[in-house]
Amino acid sequence: MSGQGQVSFRNIVKMHGEFAALKGVNFDIKPGEFFALLGPSGSGKSTTLRILAGLDAPTAGRVLIDDKDVTSTDARDRDIAMVFQSYALYPHMTVAENIAFPLEMARLPKAQIASAVQEAARKVKIDHLLDRKPGQLSGGQQQRCALARAIVRKARLFLLDEPLSNLDAKLRLETRAELKKLQRSLGVTAVYVTHDQEEAMTLADRMAVFMSGEIQQIGTPAEVFARPNSIDIAGFIGNPPMNLVPARYVDGDVIIAGHRLKTTTTTAGKRDVVVGLRPGALRMTEGGLGARVDLIEDLGDTAVLDLDCAGTMIRMRVSDGNIPSEGETISITARPRDIHLFDPTTRMRL
Amino acid sequence: MATTAATSAGIASEAPRSDFGRVLAQRERRFAAALLAPAFLALLATTTFPLLFLVYTSAFRLDLAMPFTNGFVGFENYQVLLSDERFWTSLLVSLVYTGSTVALQVIIGLALALLVMDMKRGQGWFRVIAILPVVLSPAVVGMIWRTFMLAPEFGIVDFLAINAGLGSKNWLGDPTLAMVSVIAIHTWQWTPFAFMVLLASLASLPEDIYEAARLDRASAWQRFRRITLPLLRPAIVMVIIMRTMVALTAFAAIFTVTGGGPGTATEILNLYAYRKSFTELSIGYGAALAVALLIVTIIISGILFALRRAK
Ligand SMILES: Nc1ncnc2c1ncn2[C@@H]1O[C@H](COP(=O)(O)OP(=O)(O)OP(=O)(O)O)[C@@H](O)[C@H]1O
Ligand SMILES: [Mg+2]
User: Fold this and answer.
1) Of A182, A300, A281, A189, whose CA–CA distance to A240 is shortest?
2) Which domains does chain A have, with CATH numbers?
3) Is A89's Cβ below 8 Å from some Cβ in B?
4) Is there a contact between A76 and B219 if contact means CB atoms under 8 Å apart?
5) Atom of ligand 1 nearest to the CA of A210
C-alpha cells in the first residue's frame, strides 16, 4: 500500500483573489526524509501543506508524489496522513474510535483494527486514555491522539502543521524528541510545518525557508545556519538571530563604525554591504571594535549582551565566566570566516 | 428549626459569618420571590387553573343540548371514551399526522440545510424566503392552501397534477388525499423551522474535522453518517421534540382546510375534542377527550426526553 513518499512541487502558485499566497514554489523531498517548512507567520507554509494534502487546489503548477502527477487528485486518494494544527479530532468519538476511524474507512477486519489501535496508542503513550472523548483530554494528550490517528494507517506521507504549538515548553521539548524517533522508526516521509526555527533545526533532515510566499533557501539546517542565502533568512534563523550591520567593503575588509575587520572575500573594490555577525561568533579581544554593554540578559549557562557600537545595536552571546558588567566598554571582533556579507539592494548573499 | 440550630452549633467558629450570609440569602430569596410572584400568579391563573378546571369538568356530564341529564358522573366519560371507536380513530389520525409531519420536516429540513451549507452565494436570501411560511398564521396557511393550491382546476397543485397527466383530483374530498394534503400543508409551513435550526447547528460544526475525514478516506456518505449525523443529533432530537408537541396539538390549519373531514378522515384528537365540545356541545365528554390528548402528549414527550438523555 504505502509507496515511497517522494514529493515534488513544480512552480506552485496559489492566488487568493489578487493576493499571491504562493508565488511559484519548487522543492523535492526524498523518500524517508524529515522535511521542514519554516517561515514567519503568513509566509505560505500551511498553504503549501494543504496543497500537498489535496485540501486546496493550486492556481498553477503541478504536485508530484512518487513521480505521479496528483495535482487534481482528491485528498482521499493521495494516501496521506496529516496532523492538523487544531488536531481536528472527532469530538463525538472516543480516543479509540478516533484512532480506528481511518482503518474503518479502509474496511479492515475488526480484530485487526483493535490491535492496530492498541499499538498506535502505545507508541504515543495514550493507551490508558482510549475510552475518553477528546474534550476530556489535555492539549498534549489530544495532540498525541491526533498523532496516533495519523500513524495508525501506514500512509506514504506524513504531514504535520505546527503540531507542537499548543503545548507548553517542557512538553514541546519531550514530544519533539519523540516525534523524531517515531518518524525514524516508521521510516516514513514527513513534512513538518513550523514557524519555530529551533524546532526545524532540531527535527529536520532538510528544510525550506519561506518568506512571503516564496522559498528563499532549501538545505540542511546546518547549511542554512552556516550560510544564509539572504538578509531575511539571516535575520530569521538563530536565537538571537544574526546581527545585520550596514558597512563599507574595501578591498577584502569591512569597515564597521570606523573599525576594519578582515573577511574571507578577497575581491578588490569598494561598495556598501550589510555585514552579518552571529551573536555566538563574536569574541572579546583587545584592539577590536569598541562597544558599550547596554544590557545583559542572563540565560543561566550563557548570557546575551546588547552592545552599543557607535550607535548600532549588536547582540553578542557569551558563555559563563567572562561576563562583563553593564555600562562597561569592551572590545569585540570576529574571525574572517564568521563574517557574512549581503548586498543591501538585492538582499542576497555576496 | 432544630436542625438549623444543630448545624450552626456544629460550625460554631464560623457562626457569625454564616449567620450573616444566611440572613442575606434569605432576604434575597424573599425579594426574588416578591419579584416573581405576579408572573407566577398570572401563570397559575392562565395555565394551571384552566387545566385543573378541565380535569374537573371531565368528571361531569355537561351536555348543553340535554341539560336535564347534567351532573357528576366520576369516570364515566373515560369509560365511554375507551370504547368510543371515533376516539381511537382520531388518536390514530393524530399519531399518523404527527409521525409523518415530524419525519418529513426533519428529513426535508436536513436535506435543505445540507444543500444550503454548500451554496457559495445566496444563502442569506434563501434563509429569508424559507422563513416566510413560519411567520404566517396556520389559519391563513390553511386558507391559502384551500383556495390557491388545492382548489379544483384553478389551484396550483391541481393545475400541476392536470398538466402532469394525473387529472384533476378531489384533494380535500377524498379521504386519503385529504390526509396527504393536511400533512403536506403542515410540512410546508414548518419545515423552514427545522431547516433554520439544523442549518445553524451545521454551521457551527468545525470544518477541520471534515478535512481530517477526507484524509482518513471517508466518502461523502460516510462523512455524513459518521460525523455530521452524530454531531447534529442533539439538534435533531430537539427539533423532533418541539415539532411533535406542536403537531399533536395542531388545530387551525386542519380546521380551516378540511374541518376534520371528509367524514373523520383528518379528524385529529384535538379536532374531535373541539367538535364534541363546541359542535355537539357535550362539554364534559369533550373535556375528557382533551385530558386524554394531554396524557398522550405527556407520555410521548416523556419518551422523547428519555431518548434525548440516552446516549
Ligand atoms: N482563504 C484565504 N483568503 C485570502 N487570503 C488567504 C486565505 N488563506 C490564506 N490566506 C493568506 O495567505 C497567506 C499564507 O497563509 P498561510 O496560512 O499559508 O500562512 P502560514 O505560513 O501557515 O502562517 P502561520 O504560521 O501563521 O500559520 C497569508 O497571508 C494569509 O493571509
Ligand atoms: Mg499555518
Assistant:
1) A281
2) 7-234 (3.40.50.300), 243-342 (2.40.50.140)
3) yes
4) yes
5) 21
Q: Match 482503518 to its residue by C-alpha cell.
A: A103
Provide ipTM, 2 decimals: 0.81
Q: Which residues in chain B have Cβ-Cβ distances shorter than 8 Å to A54?
A: 214
Q: Which CATH superfamily is domain B77-309 in?
A: MetI-like (1.10.3720.10)
* Residues B112-134: tens digit of each pLDDT: 999 988 887 878 888 888 888 88
Place of cell 409523518: B100
pTM exceeds cut of 0.80: no
Q: Is B29 exposed, middle or buried (0-12, 13-18, 19+ CB in 10 A)?
A: exposed
Phi, psi of A289 (to 5 degrees): -80, 125
Q: Which residue has the cell 424573599?
A: B30
Q: Which residues of chain A have pLDDT under 70?
A: 1-3
Cell numbers standing for residue B35:
419579584
Half-sphere exposure of A336 (CA within 13 A, CB side): 8
How many Å lie between the centroid of ligand 2 and the Cα of residue A117?
29
Give the CA distances from residue A60 to residues A15, A21, B162, B269, in Å, rounded to whole numbers and listed in that order. Answer: 9, 12, 53, 65
Spatial separation of the C-alpha atoms in residues A121 and A129, rounded to whole Å: 9
Q: Any idea which residue has 442533539 for its cell?
A: B234
In angstroms, the CA A83 to CA A124 distance is 13
Residue of A nearest to B214 (CA): A76
Q: Are the CB atoms for A51 and A37 separated by under 8 Å?
A: no
B311 confidence band (pLDDT: 50, 70, 90): low
- Cα–Cα distance between B53 and B41 in angstroms, integer? 16
Q: Is A15 in the pocket of ligand 1 (CB under 6 A)?
A: no
Tell me which chain B residues have a C-beta less than 8 angstroms from the C-beta of A77. 217
B246 close to B260: Cβ distance less than 8 angstroms: no
- Which residue in this structure is represented by grid cell 427545522? B194
| Mean per-residue pLDDT, B45-71 | 84
For residues A23 and A14, what is the distance between their CA atoms, to the nearest angstrom?
A: 7
Q: Report which residue type is found at B303.
A: I
Q: Which of A23-32, A284-293, B216-225, B239-248 has the lowest mean pLDDT?
A: A284-293
Task: Look at residues B305, B271, B219 and name the one whose alpha carbon lies nearest to residue B91.
Answer: B271
Return the residue matching grid coordinates 512541487.
A9
User: Strand, helix or coil at A116?
Assistant: helix
In chain B, what residues touch A53 (CB-CB under 8 Å)?
211, 215
